[in-house]
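We give this protein:

***
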Amino acid sequence: MKLVVAVIKPFKLDDVREALSEIGIQGITVTEVKGFDRQKGHTELYRGAKYVVDFLPKIKIEVAILAEQLDKVLDVISGAANTHKIGDGKIFVYDLEQAIRIRTGETGREAL
């Protein structure tokens, strides 16, 4: 099992969710986060005063999947989230040792 964590631009969330749904991924967790990488924030003007926005709003998506789904999920997320502009985000993959469905007690593959 794998845990895929993607940090993407907020307006791409629906595209990614729909693309994952089309390949049979049923459950995702979404969190609103802030961060920066190479883009290092930007300067905005508010009531005549300039200020630097260091951390930009992003969306973090977490998806627990079977190992054999990994390549397809990575392709789908990177394709749906891509705008060909700086700040599109990153995808991280973690090994997932155990999953338990609280309601039924199912574990492992059955819990996903």
In short: The chain is about 20% helix and 35% strand. The CA atoms of residues 43 and 92 lie 29 Å apart. The first helix runs from residue 13 to 22. The longest strand covers residues 56-65.
